[in-house]
Design brief:
The structure is a homohexamer of 175-residue chains. Chain A is mostly helical and 175 residues long. Chain A folds into two domains: 128 residues, AhpD-like (Up-down Bundle), CATH 1.20.1290.10; 28 residues, no CATH class. In chain A, 54% of the residues lie in helices and 0% in strands. The first copy, chain A, has six helices and no strands. The radius of gyration of chain A is 16 Å and the shape is globular. The C terminus of chain A is likely disordered.
Chain lengths: 175, 175, 175, 175, 175, 175
């Protein structure tokens, strides 16, 4: 598979996700719409920053073995500044907790990460549940710090140094 | 249930875990023994610190709905300095990813956390898979920073400030 | 185990659930609180009535194998007028979809149903996530129709005939 | 993806399912054959009508996150007269019970439902486990009532009005 | 916990299982009854002997993390002549496939095995749920062999040597 | 789909698996690498032979519903001499334990088995992920017997007869 094809696959998938989210949110079902809003809210910076929350979402998706969710959180983690070695440490926790049944999903996660690092466009933020026409706040995409980009020593400063308040909020909301 | 009873329950559970781990590791099955060692290794500080890895283990356990694993990681998180509000943010991610089926486990997790905060002894470290007689290294129990103990503002400094190299190793090993 | 003991166990469990829900909802975590409110909202009468929605919750809980959730929905189904034979038909769908791994949970579900039929008090409504002090609306506990209480012929009248508007709303809300 | 392509995909999938079911049932394994027969029997009208049972199967499939099973039950629900808004209420229960990990499957479910409403042929009945050459009984495909097609008031008459005995049996059997 | 208490717990559990199976099978639900019969049939000797099938059931129960099912198959494996080291090899496959989330169940499985080896009575065969009146065919009870009872060398002859007639039959029924 | 296309699909999948395993093992993450090594070790002959262990892996994969893992173990089982009828008996245990949700995976498993029997090349051994440089010990490769290749009578000799030396070793490594 060529890199170009990969990029196409990533784009096709993102397109499908965006189109179906719009379909679902257009439906007059308040429980579904509120759930999507809550899903967005859960990843906004709080006491834990966005990078940590996205890592939590990534490992949860890994042990529950959902490829779409894994890809989504890999992209979000990367935007929040999580480096490749930090990502692999999260993978290793998911692998040990979830067992070898996780391995096929790990393969696809690493393939997706490789594509992102090779320049494929990430899925739009909040593909999980963002309503069409919601405008993200300023600065929302600016990456936080780059975890794992350093020498990788235990105890090294991470995640938070460069995070401005409101940065990486994970956050356009439905309402 | 009185607080005294609760402490007794925590102790009884910790005793069972320790006794059975010893039984299992005494068995001449190398795959099982290596798995237990790997389980310990996965939570040692790397690019990600111990608190973050324990939070990953906590959310993974929550969405997979294993009470024993949840209790274990709640205790480890607390020892690594994760505060109550940070713990609840991790709970909220697990709840949204895993759904209402997680709620009964969340109740028991909060009950266990309440007991720990009321002074019940935590389970011994590495109850997952540590061989009997392994001596933890110096400083292993010293909490890192206290996430969520501060004012809880987004972007506040967290996890890492006080982490000395080797701290929070998660770590006595089998070999 | 005597019937009296069973009733005690049901009451002790209900007490724990209520106490922990109050603990959780007292926590200043908006995502968790909203999730609990959404959980309540999902079972309110809409195009589908309460009995049908509770049966959906019951089968979902059965295949995901959560005893607390199963007990909760068994009690709610019964209050919504679902009869024993209708309950068993729902059990049979859960058993076929979920496999023999469901059987131990089915045993406990039937035991719990037996206790309810013998007069043990059901858990308080909305034990999943209702804030303390919420007053249920009038008529909320009145059973709808009694499904499966008749001769059990296919196509027999069921669920809805006696449902008054607002009946079985499943519904005290958090806000 | 054009509508024509979608129809092709639905047809290709149905063809694969039918072909493999025939392969499996041709095998001299009595347990497997009996399981397939039991799977068919579980959805036949009893105290609960076919529409309700198919909704139970749909929500069970949703929380267990099996796309093929979800598509199958969406088609069966639609044939049993379940309307789009009733389907979304079932989706909302599945989403709340199963969590955000269900969302990617929900997207595909809604896409499949859209295709069916646009005129794509549904999969053959009993694709789960029916042997080829089994003749459905008379009246089996006649839809029951149309849930959710009405004004959507709680307590409105639903599911059962038009169900003749033996209607919606879900039911050709293997033996 | 003393050995006597352990034996009591095993007996209490077996009593509950037997009592509830009888309750469930007394119910006029043909799907449930047939499922229980099929569950019994699946473990009868065929091309694969009973010991192998019980090991399959054991590992399936382990990765799906059902304590009751695990205990049941541990007891059945033991009756079919599976030795402790063979049991641990099966545990190790389940542990690697299913991950560390399996560990708490492994502890309880080993505890249960210890109790059986110390002389606690096993649960009655087919506690899962055999339909009343099913007569096993001739030859079905012929024992396989004793796995892991020999010197434990790789490739050594297995399963069959020490099994007494009637052992590991997979076959006593409830009625 | 033509047989040629099927073979292509099998080859494409095997290629992807091999490529991604190499990517993953090239990463400097010791936990992940050790996990892959342990995954290989778990299926090596011990008290249980390779065929039995691969059947355990197959049923575990079936009830956890991972198509890639199922295909992998189907191929390994076949190489270890497990016949089609023995494979179906394992399928039947997985189906009964795991329920109808397993059926779509069973269809794909049988399709994959059909392709293998029609001459499609199996995936390379240990595609799961063996660490480079691991040398299998002597005697570890000695074949077991051919399950299901005989007349299929209960209690018949099994697993070992037709296996050629080196067959079903559980053992070729990536490097």
């Amino acid at each position: 598979m060529s890199a170009g094809d990969d990029g196409d696959a990533v784009r096709a998938f993102a397109g499908f996700r965006e189109r179906m989210n719009a379909r679902i949110l257009a439906e007059p079902n308040q429980v579904v719409r509120r759930f999507f809003a809550l899903d967005t809210q859960a990843y906004q910076a709080g006491v834990l920053d966005v990078a940590t929350k996205e890592l939590l979402g990534l490992v949860a998706s890994l042990v529950l073995r959902c490829d779409d969710c894994i890809s989504y959180h890999v992209a979000r983690c990367r935007e929040a500044g999580v480096g490749r070695d930090a990502m692999f440490e999260a993978f290793s926790v998911g692998l040990v907790v979830g067992g070898s049944i996780v391995i096929p999903h790990l393969r696809r996660a690493v393939d997706f990460l490789d594509q992102l690092e090779a320049g494929a466009p990430p899925p739009p933020e909040h593909a999980h549940g963002c309503a069409p026409g919601v405008a993200p706040g300023p600065g929302r995409r600016r990456p936080a710090t780059v975890a794992g980009a350093g020498p990788g020593r235990p105890g090294a400063r991470r995640w938070t140094a460069a995070s401005a308040p409101g940065d990486g909020s994970g956050g356009a909301h439905l309402a």
